[in-house]
Amino acid sequence: MTTHAVATPADRPKGWSREAMSAPPGSGGQTGVARSAHLGDAALGWACRLSAAIVFLMLISLIAVLVHSAWPAIRQFGFGFLVSTEWRVNELERPMRDATGQVVLIDGEPVMETLAPAFGALPVIWGTAVSSVIALVIAVPISLSAAIFLVRVAPKLRIAGAASFLIEFLAAVPSLAFGIWALFVLAPLFQKYVGPFLQRVLEPIPGFRWMFYETVTVAGRNIERPIPLTGRDLFTGSLILAIMILPIITSVSRDVLKSVPRTQIEGTLALGATWWQSCVAMLRYGRSGLLGAIMLGLARAAGETMAVTMVIGNNSQISPSPFAPAQTMASVLANEFAEASEGLHRAALLYVALILLTMSLVFNVVARRLVVGGISPTGSH
After folding, report:
1. pLDDT at residue 27 above 90?
2. The pTM is what?
């Protein structure tokens, strides 16, 4: 025999009445509880819309302020700013040279010419691109290996939680701490041991001499001179960048590999694949999300400021050698913006900031789309 629970007056919601229950929707018979719930939903919806609008307006405002402040440089240099190699803050007086490179003389005295201030972003774009690429070359293999370890090995050893915590803790270390460590540990180590060792090993090999020598023009002649191995150069900056982007690439890659269906791994093993081959199959399955993780690391590397500024040097000239000082877009802003005078110099720096913001936005948008597609069950792999 089935018994049915009978609702008692105590079980009824507050404000309940038979007339209110029988009233049509929208009539005055609606309860106060229903009206309060409706108003709460509407208020929450508008609060969410307002919050999203504020974030969007902040981004638009940031872009508008940068464009307005950089407009004098945009108007004067245009897109040629992206390919110009000159970065001269003050006027420069130098001897005039003819088409053959000889100094022009009048009555035995050199004719002097005055060069106006000029600004071009190609050296800092070059420094940003090269340092980011070197950092990715170092960091990506280590990050993917660490992600495979966290997904396939660490759970069996019961250290997945501790290992993941260490990775995330490394991501929380301030960039200034990385910079100080690189300045007092990494740079002297490279100057005393790593740099001379690499020079002894690589310089005799054909095709590697350019890494340790540079060509300069003196009195119209090209002279080759050795690059001082100070430890504050493009390579050291790239190395500290690689250490700093390891956590973000590792953590995102771990999440992507965790989303790979277990059947994919078991299927490859059932077909006779080795453990390593099953790992390669995992990487292939999640390649879209892994590429997104790499793009996120690239965005972090391109925008990193303090740590790189402390060890990359301060050279506004393009050098193909990774052991020469250089500048990135972020480092030139950190070095010069505080002392830049109102006018073209500050506008040029803000033009650089606008380029950096555009690059970061593009990298992050592409990375997010790839990561979402890489970890979605219905995403394209």
Report:
1. no
2. 0.81
Measure the CA–CA gap between 270 and 171, rounded to whole angstroms.
Answer: 38
DSSP 196-258: HHHHHHHTTSTT-GGGTEEEEEETTEEEEEEPP--S-SHHHHHHHHHHHHHHHHHHHHHHHHH
Q: Residues with Cβ < 8 Å from 294, sequence gap 6 or more?
A: 136, 140, 249, 367
List Cβ neighbours of 160 (8 Å cut-off, separation of 6 or more): 150, 154
Which residues, other chains included, contact 207 with Cβ-Cβ below 8 Å and sequence gap of 6+? Answer: none
Q: DSSP 3-state assignment of 112? A: strand
pLDDT tens track for 268-315: 888 888 999 999 999 999 888 899 999 999 999 998 888 999 999 888
For the chain, the C-alpha Rg in angstroms (whole number) is: 30
């019961």: which residue's tokens?
158
Q: Considering all CA atoms of the chain, what is the largest pairwise distance in Å, rounded to the nearest integer?
A: 125
Burial 246-262 (b: 16+ CB within 10 A, else e): bbbbbbbbbbbbebbee
Q: Which of 83-92, 129-138, 185-194 has the lowest mean pLDDT?
A: 83-92
Tokens (6 digits) for 294: 């790499």
Say how far apart CA 5 and CA 226 lie, in whole Å: 93
Chain centre to alpha carbon of residue 309 = 15
- Cα 290 to Cα 140, 148, 276, 342, 373: the distances in Å are 10, 12, 18, 44, 10
Which residue, among 85, 108, 82, has the nearest Cα to 95 in the 3D structure? 108
The residues, ordered by sequence, that sit 6+ positions from 319 with a Cβ below 8 Å of its Cβ are 214, 227, 234, 325, 326
